[in-house]
Amino acid sequence: MSEAAPHQIIQNLAVAYWASRCLHVVAELGIADVLGDEAQTAEELARSSGLNPQALHRVLRSLANHGVFTHDGERFAHNAASRLLRSDVPGSLRSISRMMGLKVHWDAYRELGVALRTGKPAISAVIEEGFFAYLRAHPEEGEVFNEAMAGKSHAQIGPILDAYDFSGFGTIGDIGGGLGHLLNAVLERAPRARGVLFDLPQAIEQARHNPRVTYVAGDFFKDPIPSCDAYLMMTVLHDWSDEECTEILKNIKASASRTAKVLILEGVVQPGARDNFLLDLDIEMLVMATGRERTEKEWRAVISGAGMRLARIIPTRASLAIVEAVIA
Ligand SMILES: C[S@@+](CC[C@H](N)C(=O)[O-])C[C@H]1O[C@@H](n2cnc3c(N)ncnc32)[C@H](O)[C@@H]1O
């Protein structure tokens, strides 16, 4: 792999948010939904969207330069990446692009220095309550967040299903399962199983109904978690500190049978990793939450802190692994 020149590495990073911001605003304005199968000029798109044609042209040209949309000098057309910004495609990434552009998100990133000075999440300088309480109080943003989680999960779910046999479980709980996208897919592979979706009310209220699933609105720090044979937790524990993870896992343990499996679907940081999305995601945790991305050693410590044992780590074709914990 050829290395970029040193000045390019710094310059590209210093301005990376220029293009990022274009993506957020184009996702927010729904431009990819307005653009159909026929190529259109920015003027045509601006007319149907009520936008300034010249500004839209420049923003779309920048995105095309980064591989989102194509541009022949006059008209813009969809390509595979820009189609993912449409609202109506499976695995749409429109919501996660909108979510990253929410004001609360940008305000929190401006405060990254707070995290370095205090060790607290940067967002604590912006809002007093945690991010999930904020989303409860701002339901439109909460909906964007929940849809964003479903969208970002799309590329992970197939590889998870291929890496693990769920068919032997009677009851499968998805704890912090959001809209139930993972649980619904797992239940397809486990036709005899029943599901339990446990999450905060703002996710449960928005979840898509599945007759095989019991929906439980609750707080995994305070409320009892229904007894299950397998507990899924996808990108949940990375939101929380070691102490908070221990509390959540102990709460699960309190309802679990001795043979239950706790399947933690998370990244596992490899020492010395480079160009690894997980290390960027870790910054999102530093800014927005009390958690972090963890190495195998760190996962082992969190799991044993809750009186469980890390049985094995099963890699998948995607970036998440299946960290299987058993009740020790
Ligand atoms: C990063 S999202 C992951 C969602 C889903 N597992 C996925 O990967 O798409 C974290 C989830 O934890 C839920 N959550 C946060 N705090 C919670 C709490 N105290 N009790 C229950 N669920 C909570 C959120 O509502 C959200 O659905």
Textual characterization of the structure:
The chain has 16 helices and 12 strands. The chain has helices spanning 6-14, 16-29, 31-34, 42-49, 53-65, 80-83, 94-100, 103-110, 112-118, 131-137, 139-163, 181-189, 201-204, 242-255, 277-288, 296-305; strands at residues 40-41, 70-71, 75-77, 171-175, 194-199, 213-217, 230-234, 261-266, 268-269, 294-295, 308-314, 321-327. A 7-stranded mixed β-sheet has the order 6-5-4-7-8-12-11, sandwiched between helices. Strands 1-3-2 form a 3-stranded antiparallel β-sheet. Helix 2 packs across helix 7, helix 4 (42-49) crosses helix 5 and helix 11 (139-163) runs parallel beside helix 12 (181-189). The site of S-adenosylmethionine has 16 residues, from helix 11.
Q: Would you summarize the structure shown here?
A:
This protein is an alpha/beta fold and 328 residues long. The chain has helices at residues 6-14, 16-29, 31-34, 42-49, 53-65, 80-83, 94-100, 103-110, 112-118, 131-137, 139-163, 181-189, 201-204, 242-255, 277-288, 296-305, and strands spanning 40-41, 70-71, 75-77, 171-175, 194-199, 213-217, 230-234, 261-266, 268-269, 294-295, 308-314, 321-327.
